[in-house]
Amino acid sequence: MISAIILTLNSMGFIESCLDSVFKQDSTEVEIIIVDNASKDNTIDFIKENYPKINLIVNKENLGAAKARNQGIERARGEWILTLDCDIILEKDFISKILNITKNLSPKVGMIQPKILKSNRKTIFSTGISLSFLKRFYDIGKDIKDLGQFNKPKYVFGVCSASAPYSRKMLEEIKESTGYFDERFFFLVEDVDLAWRAQRKGWKALYYPEAISYHDGNSSSLNKSLRQFLCWRNRKFMLKKYRLNRFKLTIVYLFYDLPRAVFLFLFNSHVRNAILNKNNFNINEVKY
User: Fold this and answer.
1) Residues 30 and 141 in one domain
2) Which residue range(s) make up the domain with 271?
3) What is the three-state SS of the chain?
4) What's the pLDDT score for residue 249?
5) What average pLDDT score do residues 254-269 get?
6) What average pLDDT does this structure show over 269-277?
7) pTM for this prediction
């Protein structure tokens, strides 16, 4: 069985389409868990009224994407955990294809990356996460028109948690005191961190293009400056966490992090206040 964990936060515009795509799967071997991070719209009432049998966790405050996913994983019973953003729509054979591929996987494949297209169904959102020499992380193929050039399975560094199956065995092996997803990240980069941990333990991520999902990408009302701040902050934390040797860290800092920090200091008030030791991080601004 696979357990689908869906995150919601003021998600009325998306949750019905997402849930309908899960319920219409041609496989019945799926458990659905929704974790809501204190929605202020009608999301919770809508779910209770229209999907009363769904396993629903309601938080009284926004605990962040990483914490919410961990809550879902802890309750899940499946051998595979499928993390879903609320604005994801699955092809009707998505879960059956994932379950079929898991039967023939190498025992060290612990993450599967589907082909995630944007809602126009023509443009790539992600075919996996790549980590460059400068430790920049990015979604492979993002914003490129899908012409079949990403139709071959391959190993990738990590998977995009907007729509990603994870092996329960792998998650239990790499779990830290801060959770499966490191809750200190709160939101953004937590899937990169998890992939890095998994790689260091010998686990692999497989891109499997036959499983397709669609990602609206507009469910987040997070403003650009706060998103930049969270990416900047969480990247710093990740680099510190993995303790690169001094030479590598110097190269990464000089050629990427220093120029980026100067730019963000000048043009992003969240980053500027953080550098000046003024905390202006407003948790209520974070949505996904």
Assistant:
1) yes
2) 224-285
3) CEEEEEEECCCCCCHHHHHHHHHCCCCCCEEEEEEEECCCCCHHHHHHHHCCCCEEEEECCCCCHHHHHHHHHHHCCCCEEEEEECCEEECCCHHHHHHHHHCCCCCCEEEEEEEEEECCCCEEEECCEEECCCCCEEECCCCCECCCCCCCCEEECECCCCEEEEEHHHHHHHCECCECCCHHHCCCCHHHHHHHHHHHCCCEEEEEEEEEEEECCCCCCCCHHHHHHHHHHHHHHHHHHHCCCHHHHHHHHHHHHHHHHHHHHHHCHHHHHHHCCCCCCCHHHCCC
4) 86
5) 92
6) 87
7) 0.92
